[in-house]
Design brief:
Elements lengths: L1 E5 L4 H14 L2 E5 L9 H7 L8 E4 L2 H7 L5 E3 L6 E2 L10 E4 L8 H4 L7 E2 L11 H15 L7
Parallel strand pairs: 1-2, 1-6, 2-3, 4-6, 5-7
Helix pairs in contact: 1-2, 1-5
Length: 152
């Protein structure tokens, strides 16, 4: 699976996601601009020593990412999504796209040619979940659908 963070802003969230990717075998794609430096102490602390165990790629912008991964089916995640994440049928090479913590994905990224925007069901009065928690919830559903292949 591929985790795509579009313009992430909070270093500890990205650090937690690095650790999650290391433990699941997911690839991490970071679409700039980032709201932090990759050597940020908070990022390192949250990611511990897992960065070396994670396949991380960086891209100048969304167009750069798409030019490198034009065939990847991308599932945008948003509180504005229309399909509950558990109804999606994920394939091993799909990408899960998450937006910046303070503003979410822009409208133009919610409309992907190959997939509907997904959402995690929440109580109506809730605003959103933490980014690293959201990534974990959806990633583990995608991995479950692949029968936890490669995991013990």
């Amino acid at each position: 699976m591929n985790i795509i963070l579009y313009e992430p802003e909070i270093p500890p969230n990205t650090g937690n996601i690095i650790r999650l990717c290391a433990n699941t075998g997911a690839r991490l794609h970071l679409v700039e601009p980032l709201g932090f430096m990759m050597d940020d102490a908070r990022l390192k602390r949250a990611g511990l020593d897992y960065r070396e165990l994670t396949d991380i790629s960086r891209y100048r912008n969304w167009q750069h990412f798409r030019s490198e991964h034009a065939r990847m089916k991308v599932w945008p995640l948003s509180t504005r999504g229309t399909t509950p994440y558990h109804e999606a049928r994920f394939a091993p090479q799909d990408g899960l796209l998450f937006g910046p913590e303070t503003r979410g994905l822009p409208d133009e990224l919610l409309v992907q040619p190959s997939a509907q925007a997904l959402r995690i069901p929440m109580r109506p009065e809730s605003r959103s979940l933490n980014l690293s928690n959201t990534v974990a919830i959806v990633l583990f559903e995608a991995i479950r659908q692949q029968h936890f292949e490669g995991m013990i």
